């Protein structure tokens, strides 16, 4: 019996078996539809090439036999298109390993596309706070980071994109400073070209900073109104006058660009929804994040979730586009046995990075570069090690965690606004220091004055 997870292994096996035929094509698209059924899409020129068409028919018969319910019948399993780009419209697509001219086009019911990685934004830095599971203190850490950077005189823009579980804005803004509108209002009004009516009333400044500024774009305004009804529309693509559709992630990118132009921040901090859904994928992969913080609790639930995501990036061949932006954050590190806890977390993080994201490092090659000093009979040898990899103990590696210590005074968001108003900077440093110092260090290295 062939199930969904066996589709790609079966297809890959058949591609190898029919490689002589496949290599005759300029391109081949393996089209997996919304129901998980596979068709082959080939250049339309093949339709008049009887020999190749016949060989592709044999391939289609093998495909239908191997995939069973996950293949269209052999007689209907081949489609012809003018170009691969045209054939893959509306799908997430990537080339298959070992076959540079063979692509998988995956049709998904949602717009979430973890395999489409936007290039890093230039200029001001965008930092995404993300976690596989909720309840890890992610939003609290973001608020404390914003507070600390603003205390240092920086202009910080904060976006609450945890739209289905909003609350970050209440940690930075007292009720009387909440703006009239929020991100959901802008996205809904944008569908009817009315977004300008709410834009100027969707940003508020926090009263927590002294030398800098914290600008907050909340999920919703002071009066949420019909928030549930609005939430059901924010993911909508926008129909353009020419009939094209602008995806919701593209609309969100447009909003963020507009907010940055309005606020001129030094850094943008984005609170992402937890989990592997389309909201999180937009925050992590679509907004050009320069740094993605992976909040983690030590435990199988955390690592199983990140393993799934990393493996998806590896299979989609986009791991190289994401891995250098990632950094693990050890969340809510307990007061007792901290050293052992962090060692265990680092070890498990290292394991999944090695399995999915780090390059396999072959034994180093050698290269003669000249005679050794004072000895003309021997030559200096330089070891050459290629690949993107890190030692487990390397503190600068993505898997090596910045820690956030659990502390009872920061255990909940409800009182965080009041807590930060009277907090001692040394206490913030004691709890969030490694995280904040790490972010500041990266911003410094990228020529952002933090």
UniProtKB/TrEMBL annotation:
Please cite one Gene Ontology biological process associated with this protein.
negative regulation of cell division
Query: Per its UniProt record, what Pfam families does this chain match?
Result: CbiA
Per UniProt, what is one GO molecular function of this protein?
ATP binding
Q: Which NCBIfam families match?
A: AAA_KGGVGR (NF047398)
Q: What keywords were assigned to this record?
A: ATP-binding, Nucleotide-binding
Its cellular-component GO annotations read: cytoplasmic side of plasma membrane; cytosol
- Asked if the Swiss-Prot or TrEMBL record annotates the protein with the keyword Nucleotide-binding, the reply is yes
**Which residue range or ranges hold the CobQ/CobB/MinD/ParA nucleotide binding domain?**
128-251
This chain belongs to the protein called: ParA family protein
Query: What domain of life is recorded for the organism?
Result: Bacteria
Q: Which InterPro entries match?
A: CobQ/CobB/MinD/ParA_Nub-bd_dom, P-loop_NTPase, ParA/MinD_ATPase
């Amino acid at each position: 019996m062939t199930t969904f997870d066996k589709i790609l292994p079966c297809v890959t096996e058949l591609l190898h078996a029919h490689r002589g035929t496949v290599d005759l094509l300029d391109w081949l698209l393996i089209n997996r539809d919304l129901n998980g059924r596979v068709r082959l899409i080939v250049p339309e020129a093949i339709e008049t090439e009887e020999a190749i068409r016949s060989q592709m028919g044999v391939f289609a018969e093998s495909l239908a036999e191997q995939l069973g319910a996950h293949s269209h019948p052999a007689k209907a399993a081949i489609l012809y298109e003018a170009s691969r780009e045209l054939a893959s419209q509306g799908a997430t697509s990537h080339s298959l390993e070992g076959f540079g001219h063979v692509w998988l086009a995956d049709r998904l019911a949602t717009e979430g596309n973890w395999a489409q990685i936007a290039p890093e934004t230039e200029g001001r830095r965008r930092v995404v706070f993300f976690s596989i599971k909720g309840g890890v203190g992610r939003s609290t850490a973001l608020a404390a980071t914003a507070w600390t950077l603003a205390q240092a005189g920086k202009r910080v823009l904060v976006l609450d994109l945890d739209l289905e579980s909003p609350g970050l804005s209440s940690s930075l803004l007292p009720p009387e400073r909440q703006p009239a509108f929020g991100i959901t209002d802008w996205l809904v009004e944008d569908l009817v070209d009315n977004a300008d009516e709410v834009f100027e009333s969707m940003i508020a400044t926090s009263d927590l900073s002294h030398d800098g500024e914290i600008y907050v774009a909340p999920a919703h305004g002071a009066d949420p109104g019909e928030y549930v009804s609005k939430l059901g529309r924010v993911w909508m693509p926008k129909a353009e006058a020419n009939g094209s559709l602008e995806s919701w992630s593209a609309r969100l990118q447009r909003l963020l660009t507009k907010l940055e132009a309005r606020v001129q921040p030094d850094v943008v901090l984005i609170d992402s929804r937890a989990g592997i859904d389309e909201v999180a994928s937009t925050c992590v992969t679509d907004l050009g994040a320069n740094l993605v913080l992976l909040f983690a609790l030590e435990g199988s639930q955390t690592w199983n979730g990140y393993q799934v995501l990393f493996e998806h990036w590896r299979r989609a061949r986009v791991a190289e586009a994401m891995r250098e932006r990632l950094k693990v954050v050890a969340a809510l590190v307990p007061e007792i046995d901290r050293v052992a806890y962090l060692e265990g977390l680092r070890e498990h993080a290292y394991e999944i990075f090695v399995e999915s994201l780090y390059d396999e490092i072959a034994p180093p090659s050698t290269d003669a570069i000249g005679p050794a000093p004072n000895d003309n009979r021997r030559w200096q040898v330089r070891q050459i090690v290629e690949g993107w990899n890190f030692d487990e103990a390397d503190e600068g590696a993505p898997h090596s965690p910045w820690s956030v210590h659990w502390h009872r005074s920061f255990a909940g968001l409800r009182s965080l606004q009041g807590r930060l108003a009277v907090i001692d900077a040394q206490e913030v440093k004691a709890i969030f220091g490694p995280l904040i110092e790490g972010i500041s260090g990266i911003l410094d290295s990228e020529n952002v004055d933090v």
